């Protein structure tokens, strides 16, 4: 059985990890370098680092923070925020990231996906997609960018399929409607996208308890689940989450030293 991944997300603003609800009311909660090291030691499978204001502020990513985090962890590390071209991607990968997440810039300039895949391999190119319920869209969901500030008019399902065609190797799918609420992932959205594409889909937005991960990894057909609030606030450790998933019959990696 293919193992499912548990991924921790660090949203970073002005060099500090921050967390909000539905992309609003963000408060600083810690140092991203220290938190990354802690989650790595707990046994998370991957880490995602988002510079959440880089695109809206029209600036490059804080590369020094990326370098510091990369020195502390030895698991796949994905970085996103303000990456507008091949040279930005090169800088991030050279700083120690294995993958880059393209969100707002991919919508504005879809060719960055195909260009990135051609230069670095599609395994390095992740589509970050923030979606909002919208009954006027064919799939029922609209893509939003710039940290949830801008509606694009793009249908979420159509954009996922287009990004895969362009060369994206993975999709991190975040539901703004459930983001930070901790009542569970958006199962309908996740299942729809996961079934439609042939690349891995990471569910994001809404995790509050281990059973939420179990649900999205089974009923939602996600390949991985991204968590933030439930670990940032100390409600659960990575080991507790994985132990609960194993008891639910979900195959996950457990580091030997904590078995």
TrEMBL record:
Gene3D superfamilies: Aldolase class I (3.20.20.70). Its EC number is 4.3.2.10. It is found in: Cytoplasm. Pfam families: His_biosynth (PF00977). The keyword ATP-binding does not apply. GO terms for cellular component: cytoplasm. IGPS catalyzes the conversion of PRFAR and glutamine to IGP, AICAR and glutamate. The HisF subunit catalyzes the cyclization activity that produces IGP and AICAR from PRFAR using the ammonia provided by the HisH subunit. Heterodimer of HisH and HisF. This is Imidazole glycerol phosphate synthase subunit HisF.
